[in-house]
Amino acid sequence: MGTLIKNTETILMEEMKALKKENEALKEQLDDLEQHSRCNNVRIHGVEEESNENVELKVLDLFKNKMNLNISPELIQSCHRVGRQDNRSRLRVFKMAQKKFGNKNVWTIRGKIMVKKLNLKHMVKSATDVDKL
User: What start-end ranges are recorded for coiled-coil regions in this protein (predicted)?
Assistant: First the structure.
């Protein structure tokens, strides 16, 4: 009986180790997938939040009036505020539908928004930076 218990314990320990290893691999795979899904996200800071606002229209207006870029609504896959509402302006995130996006004047690199205007590249960190363009 003692040998049977030892063998069962050994088998269960091996299975537990295998499951832990598989769990770690799945966590890593999930992290990679989440990171890949964020690669086309653009975060915009410093834009005041209004009640009952249409975030997509505000983003389109920002690009048109501050960056001189006409972007059609079809190029935005999703657009929303993130974080909880408090006194500060929440971030706006929108996801570019890169397959449809023909205008190469706005892109992200390592989480930064880059804008090309008059053949010069500018990094945009806030609405103030956009105003300067």
Answer: 9-36
75 and 10 within one domain: no
DSSP letter, residue 52:
T
Number of Cα atoms under 13 Å in the Cβ half of residue 80: 6
Q: How far apart are CA 107 and CA 113, in angstroms?
A: 6
Mean pLDDT of 26-38: 83
| Residue-number span of the structural domain to which 82 is assigned | 41-132
pLDDT digits (tens, 9 = 90+) for 41-73: 777 877 777 888 888 888 888 888 888 888 888
Asked if residue 45 and residue 28 are part of one domain, the reply reads no
User: What is the average pLDDT score of the chain?
Assistant: 75
Whole-angstrom Cα distance, residue 74 to residue 94?
12
pLDDT by residue (tens digit) across 110-130? Answer: 666 677 777 787 776 665 666
Which amino acid would we find at residue 64?
K
| 91 and 77, same domain (yes or no) | yes
Cα–Cα distance between 9 and 5 in angstroms, integer? Answer: 6
